[in-house]
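User: structure tokens for this one?
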Amino acid sequence: MYIYIECSFTNGYPDVIYALCTLIQGAFFFGGTMAKERTNPREQAFLLVFEKAFHEDVGFDELIAFADSCENLTLSAKARAMIAGIDAHLDEIDETIEGHLTTWKKSRLSKVALTALRVAVYELCFVEQTPVGVVISEAVRLCDVYGTASDKPFVNGVLGAIAKEQRPQ
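Assistant:
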């Protein structure tokens, strides 16, 4: 399912996070039950990084502060650590992604694909205890939930190439 939400600021707060806090109410993620313990924090990080893609002038700290103010939203410590790591290494992450885009430019990627790639590349490069298969599967799953049909194979292929370089077996 793909839902487009107009992204602008309402009362100083990003609409995407506000919509997630009020409409979804934790049933699907944010406190919902997931099959794997890492899925919830990964999806939380994905959503905040996704929001950041629309509001580059807003810092992650401000987005996290707003997320914390939502009744139905609780960011886990793991999600906060992932967001901090992505924020600290964003330039390196984007360079890695751009180095594996053969016929594409980063600016042409959908926001969902770019966000899934950023979260997954962070895990591949900086969180070595997460298995490669889990990282790629979860990125593809996020594309399935939030993106278009073309995002899944694209993200899978780019991450496969990055994984071979970053974690050769």
